[in-house]
């Protein structure tokens, strides 16, 4: 970010209409007017929400105006109740077509869906880019990672099911143990990974035989419009249903009905807490949650600073810091704090800020229009309490563009010390004694991940042992992140409930259930007949290739 980041300099980074490269333009405004309920794409004639891109367009007079992408239905509690009724009917207390279907048939439906999804890749990738301001490269990565996730899920289910395709005999009892669905799953993903994180719950939930109600995130909603037909055509009636509209209006009735069996939410712990409490029979509700986090980097005195800087730039500012796994506090040993800050600020100055389609762009417009004012408030609070912004132009903003700010020294009196900023502001906290850094992690409300940077094996080992009991992933000399997706992704305290790796997600959305019979000649003959006659989807020894 070498050019002067004045308001005018930032405004000039937004394009004129004619500057937008043709290959990144959308075919036209997308006015979605259908909702998927009970296998029907119903026309919606009620009110619609206008979708504005975080990308502003510069008019000939220099003024900036929001770029309109289209609109989607604002449905009401009545439609969400109808969607719920359709899901409940499709599940039919576990007797429906989908929950009783054999695993290989369900896999075939998901494969069919994946082919239909891939046909829409270009449009979906563009919509991710335009709706949430994610770079074109990262938007494409999000799509491809999602398709990989689905394929890995299919493989993991084959392995799981094949391992269960055998009988066990113990203490005179013959058993076959498999995993069965839980019922109606309400899936809600976040706006920072609208496709990927919605699908990392929706797909495992579906493939395990559950039926789904899904509500798209508040930004990144239109990108689901091209997928609705695929949902309708690839799955039996009522297996996937949509809920659009204002979350606070359309979601509480679903939870209060007591008919939602699993709440799958990637979002805030405040919302999760409220929704869970609305369920009249909480013991019947399973929650699979990915929530708030305030992951810290701990930079020790003997850390390789170049490596720490590289990882901390990626960790704190990839997608403008809008990742649940982002490094949201950097704790640095006071003896190397100034050296770290100098290199860190220099690295940030070299990041390219601009529009999502620009080559090499790193900092892009923010989708939440309230975010720049919130971040400015955090900066003002820290400055009033003695911190300074250490990088040139840090905190300057124009509409949705916000120059990353490195704030130092941050202490416990400042908002940035504890609040999850979820944006391009990096609080740096000095420490003299490693106990202070450990205490920061221990006393946090969150417990997702931490990164430690250092080179002494004794110190690293001494830190790892208490930290693994505070968080669920300790990254050594690398940033925090979710992937690879086959590794467990979870957190403690207010950061998560349940675990979401490819294989763990299959477990999260299912329950072990079994048949048992006395090990007698009669039972053996009976089971033999069921297996050899292919009479049951559950009792079988089939191998899915
Ligand atoms: O927002 C949370 C995402 O799951 C983070 O995924 O670490 O791969 O960017 P990531």
CATH level-two architecture of the largest domain: 3-Layer(aba) Sandwich
Instruction: Give the neighbour order of strands across the main sheet.
Output: 17-20-21-14-13-23-24
In DSSP terms (H or I, runs of 4 or more residues), the helix count works out at 19
Strand content: 15-25%
For the biggest sheet, the summary is:
7 strands, mixed
For CATH, the homologous superfamily of the largest domain is named as Aldehyde Dehydrogenase, Chain A, domain 1
User: Whole-Å distance between the termini?
Assistant: 52 Å
Q: Which small-molecule species are bound to the chains here?
A: glyceraldehyde-3-phosphate
Average pLDDT rating: 97
Rg, Å, rounded: 25 Å
Query: Which topology of the largest domain does CATH recognise?
Result: Aldehyde Dehydrogenase, Chain A, domain 1
Percentage of residues in helical conformation: 25-40%
Given the helix and strand composition, which structural class is it? Answer: alpha/beta
Write the SSE topology.
Layout: H1 7-11, E1 30-31, E2 34-37, E3 40-43, E4 48-58, E5 64-73, H2 77-91, H3 97-100, H4 103-119, H5 121-132, H6 136-163, E6 168-170, E7 173-181, E8 184-188, H7 196-207, E9 211-215, H8 228-234, E10 240-242, H9 247-250, H10 252-256, E11 262-266, H11 269-278, E12 286-290, E13 295-299, H12 305-317, E14 327-333, H13 334-349, E15 352-353, E16 361-363, H14 371-384, E17 388-389, E18 397-398, E19 401-402, E20 405-408, H15 415-418, E21 425-431, H16 434-442, E22 446-447, E23 449-453, H17 457-467, E24 473-476, E25 492-493, E26 496-497, H18 502-508, E27 510-518, H19 521-532
Parallel strand pairs: 1-5, 8-9, 8-11, 9-10, 11-12, 13-14, 13-23, 14-21, 15-16, 20-21, 23-24
Antiparallel strand pairs: 2-3, 4-5, 6-7, 7-27, 12-26, 17-20, 18-19, 22-25
Helix pairs in contact: 4-6, 4-8, 5-6, 6-7, 7-18, 12-13
The structure holds glyceraldehyde-3-phosphate (G3H).
């Amino acid at each position: 970010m070498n050019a002067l980041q004045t308001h005018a300099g930032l405004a000039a980074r937004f394009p004129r209409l004619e500057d937008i490269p043709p290959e990144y333009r959308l075919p036209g405004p997308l006015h979605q007017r259908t909702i998927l309920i009970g296998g029907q794409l119903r026309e919606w004639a009620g009110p619609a929400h206008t979708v504005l891109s975080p990308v502003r367009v510069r008019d000939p007079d220099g003024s900036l105006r929001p770029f309109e992408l289209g609109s989607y239905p604002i449905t009401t509690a009545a439609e969400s109740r109808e969607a719920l009724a359709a899901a409940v009917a499709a599940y039919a207390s576990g007797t429906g077509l989908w929950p009783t279907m054999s695993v290989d048939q369900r896999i075939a439906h998901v494969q069919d869906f994946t082919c239909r999804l891939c046909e829409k890749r270009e449009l979906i990738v563009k919509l991710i880019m335009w709706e949430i301001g994610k770079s074109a490269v990262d938007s494409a990565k999000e799509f491809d990672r999602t398709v990989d996730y689905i394929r890995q899920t299919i493989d993991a289910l084959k392995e799981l099911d094949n391992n269960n395709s055998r009988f066990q005999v113990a203490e005179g009892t013959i058993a076959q143990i498999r995993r069965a669905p839980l019922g109606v799953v309400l899936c809600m993903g976040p706006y920072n990974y609208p496709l990927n994180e919605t699908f990392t719950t929706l797909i495992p939930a579906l493939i395990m035989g559950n039926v789904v109600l899904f509500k798209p995130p508040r930004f990144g909603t239109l990108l689901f419009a091209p997928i609705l037909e695929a949902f309708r055509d690839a799955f039996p009636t009522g297996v996937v249903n949509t809920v659009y509209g204002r979350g606070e209006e359309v979601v509480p009735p679903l939870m209060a009905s007591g008919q939602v069996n699993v709440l799958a939410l990637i979002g805030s712990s405040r919302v999760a807490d409220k929704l869970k409490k609305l369920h009249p029979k909480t013991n019947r509700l399973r929650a699979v949650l990915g929530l708030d986090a305030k992951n810290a980097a701990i930079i020790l005195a003997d850390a390789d600073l170049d490596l720490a800087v590289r990882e901390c730039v990626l960790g704190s500012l990839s997608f403008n810091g809008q990742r649940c796994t982002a490094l949201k506090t950097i704790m640095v040993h006071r003896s190397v704090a100034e050296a770290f800050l100098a290199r860190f600020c220099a690295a940030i100055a070299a990041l390219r800020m601009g529009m999502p389609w620009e080559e090499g762009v790193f900092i892009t417009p923010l989708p939440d229009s309230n975010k720049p004012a919130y971040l400015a408030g955090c900066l003002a609070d820290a400055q009033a309490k003695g911190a300074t912004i250490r990088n040139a132009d840090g905190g300057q903003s124009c509409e949705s563009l916000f120059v990353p700010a490195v704030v130092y020294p941050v202490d416990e009196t400042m908002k940035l010390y504890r609040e999850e900023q979820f944006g391009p502001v990096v609080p740096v906290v000095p420490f003299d004694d490693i106990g202070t850094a450990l205490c920061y992690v221990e006393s946090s409300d969150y417990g997702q991940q931490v990164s430690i940077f250092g080179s002494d094996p004794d110190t690293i080992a001494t830190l790892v042992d208490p930290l693994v009991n505070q968080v669920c992933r300790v990254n050594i000399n690398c940033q925090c992140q979710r992937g690879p997706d086959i590794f467990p992704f979870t957190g403690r305290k207010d950061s998560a409930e349940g675990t979401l790796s490819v294989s763990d997600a299959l477990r999260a959305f299912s329950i072990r259930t079994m048949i048992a019979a006395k090990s007698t000649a009669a039972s053996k003959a009976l089971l033999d007949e069921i297996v050899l006659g292919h009479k049951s989807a559950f009792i079988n020894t089939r191998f899915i290739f």
